[in-house]
Amino acid sequence: MSRKVAVVTGAARGLGAAICRALVDDGYQVAALDLTASAETHDGILTIECDVSDEVAVNAAISSVEQQLGMPSVLVNNAGILAPGRIDDTSLEVWNRTLAVNLTSAFLLSKRVLPGMRAAGYGRIINVGSSAGKNGGFSTGGAYAASKAAMMCLAKSIATAERSNGITSNAVAPSMIETDMMGALPSKAMLDRVPVGRMGTPAEVANVVRFLASEGAAYVNGEVIDVDGGLFID
Questions:
Q1: Are strands 5-9 and 74-77 parallel, antiparallel or unpaired?
Q2: Cβ distance 13 to 180 under 8 Å?
Q3: N or C end of the chain: which has fewer CB within 10 A?
C-alpha cells in the first residue's frame, strides 16, 4: 500500500478543499468525495461524486479510489451539514439527515477503509468535528452538535480498537472558521472572546489535519485537537 493516498469527504469547498490542497502539497494523491463533485483528475486530485451517507455509494467510491490510485492510507471525514434551530423546532427528517451526513458517513467510510489499513499495518483516520460537539454550540442546533460530538467519540473508539494495528485515529474541533457554513460574521462581542482576536481560516485547520495525517504524528492517537484561537480552553 502506498502511504500517499488520501480520501477527503465534503471536499468541494471550504475546509475540505483546503485539506485537499494541503495533502497534495505534501505529496499525496487525493480522492475528493463530494455530493456534487465531477469525476475527473486534476492537480493530483481525483474528484468523485458520492453521497457519503449511502453505503452502496461509499463502497463504490472507495473501490474506484483503489483501482485508480491505490489503497487509501489516510481518511479525512469532513463532510457535514448544518441544522440550526432549537430541538423542538427540528423535524425528524432534518435530525436524521444531519446525523446521516455528519456521523453515519464517518462510520461508513471508516468501515470501508479499515480492513486495508489493518492489512498494511498503517493508517490515519481524522474526523473533522466542531467545538459545538464539545459545548453544545451557540446557534448551530442540537442535531449538528450531537452529530459532531458523536463523530469525535467515534475517532476515539477507533483509536482504541486499532491501537495495535499501526492505525491512529484523531479528530479536530474547529470553531469560527471563515467558511460558507459559518454564514454571517460573528458579532464583535463573540470575536472579543477569542484570545487571538480573529476568525480562523480553512488553511489553518488544514495544517492541523496534515500533521495528523503525517508519519510525524504517529504518537498522537485518540485526541481531539481544538482549532479555535483559544476560544475554548480545556
A1: parallel
A2: yes
A3: C
Look up the CATH number of the domain holding residue 64.
Answer: 3.40.50.720
- Could you tell me the pTM of the whole model? 0.93
Contact 94, 83 (CB under 8 A): yes
- The per-residue pLDDT for range 38-58, each reduced to its tens digit, is 545 567 899 999 999 999 999
Q: Which of 28, 122, 144, 219 is catalytic?
A: 144
Cell numbers linked to 115: 480492513
Task: State which H helix or E strand residue 30 sits in.
Answer: strand 29-34
Residue ranges making up the domain that contains 64? 5-227
Q: Provide the pairing of β-strand 40-42 with 45-49.
A: antiparallel
Q: Is 144 designated active site?
A: yes
CB 42 within 8 A of CB 227: no
Spacing of C-alpha 162 from chain mean position:
19
Does some domain include residue 100?
A: yes
| CA nearest neighbour of 33 among 58, 54, 56 | 58
